[in-house]
Amino acid sequence: MIRSRTLALAALSLCLFSSLSLTAQQAEQIRIDANAPTTPFPHFWEQTFGSGRAILSLRQSYRDDLRTVKNVTDFKSVRFHGIFMDEVGLYDPDATTKNPGLPPEKVQGAGVYNFSYIDQIYDGLLANNIRPFTELSFMPRKMAADPNQTQAFFYKPVVSPPKDYALWDAMITAFAQHLIDRYGIDEVATWNFEVWNEPNLDFWGGRPNIPTYFELYDHTALALKKVSQRIRVGGPSTAQAGYVADFLQHCKDHNIPVDFASTHVYANDTAKDVFHTDEQIPRDVMVYRAVKKVHDEIAASPYPKMPLIFSEYNASYSNEPDVTDTTYLGPWLANNIRQCDGLTESMSYWTFSDVFEEQGVVRTPFYGGFGLVAADGIPKPSLNAFAMLHRLGDLRIELENDDALATKSSDGAVEVALWNYAPPYGIGAAYTPPPANKGPDKSFQLTFANLPSSAKVELLRVDDDHGNAVKEFDAMGRPRDLTQDQIKKLRAAGAMSPAEKLRLSNGHLQITVPPHGLVVLIVK
Fold this sequence. Notes:
Layout: H1 2-26, E1 28-33, E2 38-40, E3 48-50, H2 60-73, E4 77-79, H3 104-112, H4 116-127, E5 131-136, H5 165-183, H6 185-188, E6 192-195, H7 209-227, E7 232-238, H8 244-254, E8 260-266, H9 271-274, H10 283-299, E9 308-314, H11 321-324, H12 329-340, E10 346-349, E11 373-374, E12 378-379, H13 381-389, E13 395-397, E14 404-408, E15 414-419, E16 442-449, E17 456-462, H14 469-475, H15 484-494, E18 500-503, E19 508-513, E20 518-523
Parallel strand pairs: 1-16, 3-4, 4-5, 5-6, 6-7, 7-8, 8-9, 9-10
Antiparallel strand pairs: 2-13, 11-12, 13-14, 14-15, 15-20, 16-19, 17-18, 17-20
């Protein structure tokens, strides 16, 4: 009996030792040398954000969310559709008959163009130290060859070509001249002017779509440059990383000015649409693959140094609550930054806010909206992920790991992002609460060289239990309409969790990250 018990205890000890050894072996070993060579690491992922259409920027909720995201990312510009739509009121050739009191010499210019709302839109951005990334769209109804040719969005933008390009050219000229008169050429020369939006989809009604888009681009670019050669203009602003090589070749062949190339991609785009193959490309590499594709196309083009801007990207284009509302976004974003660094001048996340109406008026929070801030000013986990990654430095320390980024700041601090990527919990557009068994945690064993062996560490987290308003929303039963008390609770639940204060132990630190978890360490 004693012998059996001894054998049992020995077997248990061996099992425990094996388990501990296995855990130690499974911990990912990362060595970070603070004196290692670095490369520039501009924060290309947070320079520009997309947003709902132009007119929404006059809303208080839009401007509140703008300031919220500006505060945590210090982003520089915002891109939206629809600055030429009728609701903004720029173009109305019949307006002269509505202003009989105008003197004859004022009638022509003052009657056709009305810059009142445009000025309020741009003034509001600039007052918050945010510049417009100026997408030139959509067609004013009275300028359209077919005013009934509209896209399916809730606000039904007119996507027809102009009935007369002389009218379009005159509007572009007047628009550019007005901006320079109001803000000065030194300011306007820092803006990007992008011609139209996704002309290879149903946002452009010309046929065949790409050749007629090139005609639109040619007229627009030449009209802008006629006002000032310092205005930056580019395109083709295509969906699915398409037609950039064709666009640049067209500009070269016809001597058309171009200052940057822009295109879009989403992580759930298909390989058939982006690469014209039958591959099954996972969501965590699709954006990188598309960015690399266009980067290489530009390198082989007549303009190998042309700046590349992905003026729309996200983990989903299709309102998937399990993707854009949840902690999934943190590891996906960090991994995308790791992969795309050095391939593009900037990437504009679509969007900063759920003040957004492409699919109609928002009916409930956490419906899979694109924004970092849900309705009623409720922060999503994605806002916290952006806030944490903003803390990374501007010099990158090369690592061989696929789930870590290391950077250095000018003050000597070292920053490390760690994540545990896992696919979304649910499938498709339906939301699925996190399962009881979410998957394995990931352990990291960090070793720091050329830093004080007991240096102070600030640790930030976002995961299912930190900075996650969706957990509280689930506990409420996911109500469609919120009370004021529920809004307060969700805002509190979605706030960034307080930083943990740690110290290195003889230059070492062990961190565990759960599935869908993102951690950022700042080593002072």
